[in-house]
Amino acid sequence: MNRPVERVPSIPGSRYAAELNKGAASMRFPRELEHEFLRFYLVERRGHLRSFNSIMGALFVLACAESVWAAPFRTQLAQHLRLGTIAVAFLAMAWVAYSRHHERFYLDTAHYASLVISLVGAVEVAYRIHAGEGEFFALLTPYSIGLYFFAGILYPAMLQANLLMIVALAATLIFLGEPAGKIAALTAMLTATAVIGGLALHTQAVRFRRAFLEHRLIAEMAARDGLTGLKNRRAFDEHLTRTWQQALRDRRQLALMMIDVDHFKKFNDRYGHQAGDEALQRIAAVVDSFARRPLDFAARYGGEELALVLFDVSREHAERVAELLRASVQNLQIPHSDHAAGVATISLGVAIVHPTLERSPEGAVQLADEALYAAKREGRNRVRIFESEYQGLSTGIFRPQ
């Protein structure tokens, strides 16, 4: 019985919360999230995949050797080839599971290998049944379920492999001239097993996907600011370091914006801290809406100070974004009678930075801070951009020597 689905809190920009709030984990997520899930899935199951495929490959190698030993090679050539093909398919999956290309190639390898095993295995069992060894039919039923649990193929691929196995069994039995009643009975039994197993495995697959979302959401919430829902200071520092390294590697520039709510202490003193919290939440939502691309990042830096990182943007684009952000906050029309503008506004300091080995992310933050202080000195509710002022410096902290 499925547990009742509980809605999770709405978290700005959280793909995990959005998927969980759909009511049930989808059998396929949006593209980027699906890729992230597949990496999680393969890492979690890698040990089982290695063991299962290695053992099955070894067993079929032994079965092939026993078949060759027990019967003349030429008279049973087809059987030897079938057993050998199954052994090779399992060993191929084992090899990929052990390789450093595991995450990239395993699922495709397992998908095609499972189709080969289903087809060849069903043909082999049909020949065994025709030879009076009906007990071999029992091998197909655990295999149909084990495809998901042990071979690690995804649910849609498992359905394809099961369908191919049922069709191959029935077609081979018809080719061998088995009675129609016997074929119908065996096909019905295998189909019933596949359907029952498929229903159970569908539930299992959904639970695995939901566990992934919950695992990622817990980690994400630990990196979020409790008031605004933006990422917190620690997450900001980690992201800036990673983005800095990527920009250095790709020779791209960064725009770092430090954003301060103007006269926020006066706002709290006049309207109260609850009103201040609500105003900060609304402003944070606007800032977050400007972090649209995968490497863009919005965070609460501390107090009423927010931060926005934009990857690979020109000075002109960063200036347009900053001005639009400033105007968008002013257009919220949050009353602020102790401010000359009459409404809450923000000041923005923007650092346009070209990462080098001699500079550091901390220096980029300091440069943006100095731009922010300049904006506040010049009257607030404005944008100041620093780039050429420090362009020729080689120090890590972006200060003139």
Biggest β-sheet strands, sense, barrel: 5 strands, mixed
Mean pLDDT: 86
Shape: elongated
Order of helices and strands: HHHHHHHHEHHEEHEHE
Number of domains: 2
The poorly predicted ranges are 1-5, 392-396
What is the topology?
Elements: H1 15-20, H2 31-70, H3 77-98, H4 102-130, H5 140-149, H6 155-175, H7 180-222, H8 233-250, E1 254-261, H9 264-271, H10 273-288, E2 297-302, E3 305-311, H11 315-330, E4 346-353, H12 361-377, E5 383-386
Parallel strand pairs: 4-5
Antiparallel strand pairs: 1-3, 1-4, 2-3
What do these coordinates show?
- A hairpin with a 2-residue loop joins strand 2 and strand 3 (305-311).
- The protein has helices at residues 15-20, 31-70, 77-98, 102-130, 140-149, 155-175, 180-222, 233-250, 264-271, 273-288, 315-330, 361-377; strands at residues 254-261, 297-302, 305-311, 346-353, 383-386.
- The model is unreliable at 1-5 and 392-396 (pLDDT under 50).
- The longest helix is centred in the middle third of the chain and has 43 residues, at 180-222.
- The protein is α+β, with helices and mostly antiparallel strands.
- Helix 2 runs antiparallel to helix 3.
In short:
This protein is α+β, with helices and mostly antiparallel strands. It has helices at 15-20, 31-70, 77-98, 102-130, 140-149, 155-175, 180-222, 233-250, 264-271, 273-288, 315-330, 361-377, and strands at residues 254-261, 297-302, 305-311, 346-353, 383-386. It has 2 domains: 15-222, no CATH class; 233-390, Alpha-Beta Plaits (2-Layer Sandwich), CATH 3.30.70.
